[in-house]
Design a protein that fits this description.
By secondary structure, this protein is of the alpha+beta class. It is built from 3 helices and 5 strands, in the order αβββααββ. The longest helix has 17 residues. The chain binds guanosine-5'-monophosphate (5GP) and zinc ion.
Length: 111
């Protein structure tokens, strides 16, 4: 399958892993939008939030996101966990990924 994030999981595309569990991997976003911007993905290919059937996978993703937040200190200052899904949300990579963003004051609503 031609999926860039599956290739990162397989080690075929380099990414500096900042966290890993049995079912999820965390690595910095290549184009960070904040001082801290990490992507947390399930090791198994799931295209989007619309395609999740086994929701326990998402528990592993959020568990690792929480660990990354604690390790980077953004749990103290505040952080955002975002999953873009589909066209209107500008989902560009079709392997589900949780953006962990922090380290600066953010706005709401998102653009
Ligand atoms: P989306 O818009 O699909 O929610 O976000 C995709 C994210 O993946 C973007 O923030 C983009 O910078 C990031 N990204 C795309 N390709 C790569 C890559 O090869 N390596 C890493 N580390 N991040 C990537
Ligand atoms: Zn994939």
């Amino acid at each position: 399958m031609d999926c860039i994030f599956c290739k990162i999981v397989a080690g075929e595309i380099p990414a500096k892993k900042v966290g890993e569990s049995a079912h999820a991997v965390a690595f910095p976003d290549i184009n960070p939008v904040a001082p801290q911007h990490v992507l947390v993905i399930p090791k198994r290919h799931i295209a989007s939030l619309n395609d999740v059937t086994d929701w326990s996978v998402m528990a592993h993703v959020y568990e690792l996101a929480g660990k990354v937040a604690r390790e980077t200190g953004i749990d103290k200052t505040g952080w955002r966990a975002v999953i873009n899904t589909g066209r209107d949300a500008n989902q560009l990579v079709h392997h589900i990924h949780l953006h962990v963003v922090g380290g600066r004051q953010m706005e709401w609503p998102p653009g």
